Amino acid sequence: MSNDTSYTAAGPAASGDFAETTRRSVARSTLNGLMIWLGEAGLAAARESAGLQATIDQHAAAVRDALGDPEHGPGAVPLAGYATGVRDALIEAQWQLPPTSELDWSALEWPALRLIAICALARAGGFV
Question: Which of 2, 61, 110, 123 has its CA 20 to 30 A from that of 71?
Answer without folding.
Answer: 110
